[in-house]
Amino acid sequence: MKTKVILTSAALTLASALSAYAGCGKHSEQAMSCAEGTSWDAETLTCVPQTTS
User: Fold this and answer.
1) Triad 47, 38, 40: Cα angle to 5°
2) Total structural domains in the chain?
3) What is the full DSSP assignment across 4-20?
4) Are strands 46-49 and 38-41 parallel, antiparallel or unpaired?
5) Which end of the chain has the lower number of beta carbons within 10 A, N or C?
6) What range defines the domain where residue 24 resides?
7) What pLDDT is attached to residue 29?
């Protein structure tokens, strides 16, 4: 009985950890808002001042 409980607990913990790890890579797809006069630069991943020419 103890073995079944331990194996079930381990399986649930592993499944939970893998699920959390798999969902973690989507941070770069979140919406970003920058202050007025700046825009999002995907290359540097920061807000940069808008230049007008």
Assistant:
1) 40
2) 1
3) HHHHHHHHHHHHHHHHH
4) antiparallel
5) C
6) 2-49
7) 56
- Bridge partners for 39 per DSSP: 48
Looking at the predicted structure, is the pLDDT value of residue 5 above 80? yes
**Which residues on adjacent β-strands are paired with residue 41?**
46
Which value, in Å, is the radius of gyration of the alpha carbons in the chain?
Answer: 22
Query: Using one digit for the tens of pLDDT, what is the confidence trace for 13-46?
Result: 877 776 666 665 555 555 668 899 998 888 988 9
Longest dimension (CA), the chain: 75
Contact 41, 48 (CB under 8 A): yes
pTM greater than the 0.70 cutoff: no
